[in-house]
């Protein structure tokens, strides 16, 4: 084998190795970018006397969340999506009407989103016991969401306390 052939083979090997490293770095960079804008939706309830109380939704991730779907269940019966009409449906049976914040499918929740979805101001345990019972023992809320990249199928859920 001539020196020119060895040089040509070495050049091809170096070029292929360079291509492999570049493809790997591009893949790693894309993964990093996806993780750096990942939303993290949390649903929780809080019950402090004299303060706003109810179901709180917080996006504590680094990116906005796109709501794909939601499911509201009360006493094991699926009511439907968490929207205005279904929120009104469950509030209609309560003696004290709580405030509700709803959203539509495809709605984008900002990175710093932090709101009560179903709440009462100035919580009083005896006055609002029916609402506390509904939220802590009877209601299940599941929200499916994605990042702006899409396709991740993240889920946040608030389930009844046994």
What's the arrangement of secondary structure elements?
Layout lengths: L2 H34 L4 E6 L6 E7 L5 E10 L2 E4 L3 H8 L7 E2 L7 E2 L4 E7 L8 H10 E8 L7 E5 L4
Antiparallel strand pairs: 1-2, 2-7, 3-4, 3-6, 3-8, 5-7, 8-9
3D structure, described in words:
This protein is of the alpha+beta class and 162 residues long. The chain has two domains: 1-36; 39-158, Immunoglobulin-like, CATH 2.60.40. 32% of the residues lie in helices and 31% in strands. The protein contains three helices and nine strands. The protein has helices at 3-36, 84-91, 129-138, and strands at 41-46, 53-59, 65-74, 77-80, 99-100, 108-109, 114-120, 139-146, 154-158. The strands form two sheets. Strands 3, 4, 6, 8 and 9 form a five-stranded antiparallel β-sheet that branches. It has a four-stranded antiparallel β-sheet with strand order 1-2-7-5. Strand 3 and strand 4 form a beta hairpin. The longest helix is centred in the first third of the chain and has 34 residues, at 3-36. The mean pLDDT is 91.
* Count of folded domains: 2
Report the β-strand fraction as a percent range. 25-35%
> Separation of termini?
78 Å
Would you state the CATH class of the largest domain?
Mainly Beta
Radius of gyration: 25 Å
Per the CATH scheme, the topology name of the largest domain is Immunoglobulin-like
Residue-averaged pLDDT, rounded?
91
Name the shape in a single word: rod-shaped
> H/E order of the elements?
HEEEEHEEEHEE
Secondary structure: helix percent: 25-40%
Q: Indicate the CATH architecture of the largest domain.
A: Sandwich
Number of helices: 3
Sheet/helix structural class: alpha+beta
Enumerate the spans where pLDDT stays under 50 for 5 or more consecutive residues: none
């Amino acid at each position: 084998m001539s020196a020119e052939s060895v040089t040509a083979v070495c050049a091809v090997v170096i070029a292929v190795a360079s291509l492999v490293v570049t493809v790997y770095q591009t893949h790693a960079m894309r993964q990093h970018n996806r993780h750096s804008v990942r939303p993290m939706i949390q649903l929780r309830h809080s019950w402090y006397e004299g303060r706003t109380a109810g179901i709180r939704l917080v996006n504590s991730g680094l990116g906005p969340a796109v709501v794909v779907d939601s499911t509201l269940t009360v006493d094991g019966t699926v009511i439907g999506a968490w929207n205005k009409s279904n929120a009104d449906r469950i509030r209609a049976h309560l003696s004290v009407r709580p405030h509700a914040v709803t959203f539509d499918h495809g709605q984008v929740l900002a990175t710093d989103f932090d709101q009560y979805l179903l709440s009462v101001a100035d919580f009083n345990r005896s006055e609002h016991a029916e609402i506390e019972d509904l939220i802590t023992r009877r209601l299940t809320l599941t929200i499916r969401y994605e990042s702006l990249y899409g396709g991740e199928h993240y889920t946040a859920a608030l389930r009844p306390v046994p």
